[in-house]
Design a protein that fits this description.
The protein is of the alpha/beta class. It has twelve helices and twelve strands.
Length: 357
């Protein structure tokens, strides 16, 4: 459904219709010029050849230093999605199962299916502030369970897992001898402090991306921090697939990390203002929603079929993503606040007027 809406939007735009796109989680800010200039400089210096399948040493060292880990645990990947796929491919085998709190980003489930791995969804609810039920989590674990995936902060709810909840998830995983894969690609621009899996142990799996924090979605740059044995297996997989992330892109990553504090601070400021604006407008509707802990999604409850709503809204020039794209949530939909405030205001006011008819 997520891709159906995206294709329909492209079709409508080609026909000349203006669409306010709340359906895409792609930051509207340009990549900071300092990062672009650094990549250009690297290209001019000849960093356009093959590189290491593990990633260039300079970027891996910068990541290792920032996350207080060993160089050997860091692997550079073409975006965090490949890091997630690679970890699941080298660690899981057909017939295993994983536990996935829901609503959830579609890719986790699709990757598992591709690998012949069963997915056990742990559903959460708006009524319970999207909290993970720890008793339910433990009850889902059996002898074939090998992994718990957490997306912290979560896409689509923008919920940050509470520190004590993360502590208990970690303790359950340790007790049961299973691994946690923590996707923290929104953590650096979160409004609330995120308790990383790395704060508990470096024997689990950590994934992050340059896409959201630095508005570098098209650069395809991500990384994993994993136990050394798993890192070696991912590197071997990299060698026989994409070979390497282009070295000049990794040079851009080094520059980005050096500017992380100031860029993330500005990103948080922008998205906090957008979230406040959106919540203020939607508070005047019958929609129910959780005030986001992080950029840049809202996941309101609409008490109707959001798939029908999504197609109806396209006629009004508004694109949203139905909740069914993220699990069993047909009565919810996702709004992405990756638009200028003027467009957010216009789009949400149109949405409000539509809902009041």
């Amino acid at each position: 459904m997520l891709y159906q809406i995206a294709e329909k939007v492209i079709e409508l735009e080609k026909s000349g219709k203006k669409i306010i796109k709340f359906n895409v989680g792609d930051p509207d800010q340009p990549t900071p010029l300092e990062i672009i200039n650094h990549a250009t400089k690297a290209m001019k210096e000849g960093k356009t050849k093959y590189g290491s399948a593990a990633g260039e040493k300079g970027l891996r060292e910068a990541i290792a230093k920032q996350y207080e880990t060993k160089l050997e645990k860091v692997v550079i990947t073409p975006g965090s999605k490949w890091a997630i796929y690679a970890i699941m491919k080298v660690f899981l085998k057909k017939g295993d199962n994983i536990i996935l709190p829901s609503p959830h980003w579609t890719a986790y489930q699709e990757i598992a299916r591709d690998l012949g791995v069963e997915v056990k969804l742990l559903e959460t609810s708006l009524e319970n502030n999207w909290e993970i039920d720890l008793n339910k989590l433990e009850s889902l674990i059996d002898e074939k369970t090998k992994m718990i995936i957490v997306n912290n902060p979560n896409n689509p709810t923008s919920k940050v897992i509470a520190e004590n909840t993360m502590q208990e998830i970690f303790e359950i995983a340790e007790k049961k001898g299973i691994k946690i894969l923590s996707d923290e690609c929104y953590a650096d621009i979160s409004f609330k402090k995120v308790k990383s899996i790395l704060d508990f142990s470096q024997e689990h799996f950590f994934v992050n991306s340059f896409s959201k924090t630095f508005a570098m979605t098209g650069w395809r740059l991500g990384f994993a921090i994993v136990p050394e044995k798993i890192a070696k297996e991912i590197i071997r997989l990299n060698q026989i697939t994409f070979t390497c992330v282009p070295p000049f892109i990794q040079e851009a990553g080094i520059k980005a990390l050096s500017l992380k504090e100031e860029i993330s601070k500005e990103m948080k400021k922008i998205y906090k203002a957008r979230a406040n604006l959106a919540c203020k407008i939607l508070a005047k509707t019958k929609l129910k929603l959780y005030k986001p802990d992080a950029p840049f999604y809202l996941f309101p409850k609409c008490f109707t079929d959001s798939e029908k709503l999504a197609f109806d809204l396209l006629d009004e020039g508004i694109a949203i993503t139905p909740g069914s794209a993220f699990g069993n949530y047909k009565d919810h939909f996702r709004i992405s606040l990756t638009l200028a405030e003027s467009q957010i205001r216009e789009g949400l006011q149109k949405l409000r007027e539509f809902l009041e008819r």
